[in-house]
Amino acid sequence: MTQTSSTENQSRILPQTIVCGGCGWFALNNQPFLFADGMINWLPTICGVLGVLAAVNLTAQLLTQGARLLDWLGLHQPKPNANASRWASYKDIKPLIYKGGTPFWGVMTDKQKTPLFIDFESNALVVGPAGSGKGIYCVIPNICALAGKYSKLVVDFKGELAAMMVDYLTRSGEQVYTLNPSGKFSSIVGKSASLNPLDVITDDLFNAGQLIYIMEDVREFSDMLITDTSGNTDPFWPLGAKSVIELATLIECIIEGREARLSQVALLIEDRIRLQQHLCWIIGHDMNGGPSSDGAMPIEQAQWAEQHSSQDVNEFAALIRARAGAMLKLMSGKDSKTFDSFVTQAQQAIAPFAFGSLAKVTNKTTIPIKELKSPDSVSSIFIMLDESRLQTSKKYIELVQWQLLLMVKRHPHKHVPVYAFFDEATNYKIKGLSSLMTWGRGFGLRLFIFIQVYSEFVRVYGKEDAQTLLSETQNKLFLPKQQSPEILELISKMLGQQAIVSVNQSQDKHGQGIQDSVSQAEKPLMSSNAIRQSEHGILFVKDKPPIKIAPVSYAEITPWRRLVGINPYHKKPFIKKVKLKIKR
């Protein structure tokens, strides 16, 4: 449609409207307009006829112009594009929102009185750089949201979370336990519980039919103590050190049973003479290499042996004696220096647990781990770290999380959810995270991973685990104040492209008017620079459009602001103006 023809058509409407209106008015005001005193009243009749004809023509013109207007509007509206990105509306996500008792994500920017309680079935990720308020906006509010509803494992990197939450969780009917090697804030959180990692091995000994899995579990246990060798050009030395730890662990568990302690394994590796004595006893030799008058260690007659088939026990005993004989030969033969290297690395790996604070919290287990998955009770375990002793704390958290997650996986109540909070997850390493994110869902394990810098996660866990993190997390929240160019670009790409319609005008091919042309282009829903400057967070939930989020701290939410304890580092209440009220 050209501008000239459109103008000509529009110019006819006004005079036709005047003619129609004038004739109609004249006819109506000169009654009767057809006959008067038996004769035709010509002037009103002619005006009436002209008015009717003008009205018909005017109606046709209006319909034509209306059709052209609809055509014009159709051309200037973007055609639906299923691939174009857009921000989510409340209607999009309303079916996913609960009234409470599930993870809390803040509020939508255009509906700030409605809390977003949206659950996930497997994994969730929160990326909040330093100063973004990751703790007050996400970690603490989510512990509050799940209080009294679901069991939780919480890695408390600074120790403040336990101090702030223990009273509230206890009043919510939970059993709360703290693993607190350094005794931090003990006046608030109480005495530390303890968790014996050797329970994994002794369970295999004392649970019927489980003996066939003991070598696999002891191998995983040694992997937790000695760094993974996949990137080592010569894995011979780490593998040798692992074999020392594995055999010493098995000796301690076989002899002591449920009383086996990690500290005693460390002392056995430190004491070469005692280690040699035990190896000799296992194979039935004295210290001089001759037959022992007392015979070999009666492994087959141990108390736990009756829980298994005689074939399994005999094969296990033969394996232990073969490994003991090989190690004894290595100790006293020409390759003793090789053994020295193995032992030295094993000693260094297990030394933190030989004496002191870590020895105490890896003593006899005082936490009923099975209650984590009980459908009738709710428990929370806080693993409190000492950031001033980071290297030792990292080794401890890696060992404890391995044991706890393994126990959760093996629990018979697989349908009961347990939420695992990994705060500051780049300051330690979650063993086997990639596989954990894929199989955890089937065992009711829901991982909540909190990090500051995505590039640091790539450095610690590797590119493959980083890709798995992005693909296997159903909910992803990126808090404001993002500064890393890499994460800004990643968020922008995840947001996708929106459709932009532009209208251009040019002279028509006959040179008689102006014609409109409409084109559609794409541009990022939000550029990297816009994300960097934004005061809002961005939430991705499953396959829904991205959600623009206004973070809300626990200090702005009733009743949490009054229920959460004082941060022991700040030593004063953190209370702000109420923005949101939540029904308990």
TrEMBL record:
GO CC terms of this entry: plasma membrane
Family label: Belongs to the VirD4/TraG family.
InterPro entries assigned to the protein according to its UniProt record, in alphabetical order: P-loop_NTPase (IPR027417), T4SS-coupling_protein (IPR051539), TraG/VirD4 (IPR003688)
Keyword Cell cycle part of the UniProt annotation: no
Protein's name according to its UniProt entry: Conjugal transfer protein TraG
Keywords: Cell membrane, Membrane, Transmembrane, Transmembrane helix
This protein's record includes keyword Lipid metabolism: no
Compartments it resides in: Cell membrane
Pfam families associated with the record: T4SS-DNA_transf (PF02534)
Bilayer disposition of the protein: Multi-pass membrane protein
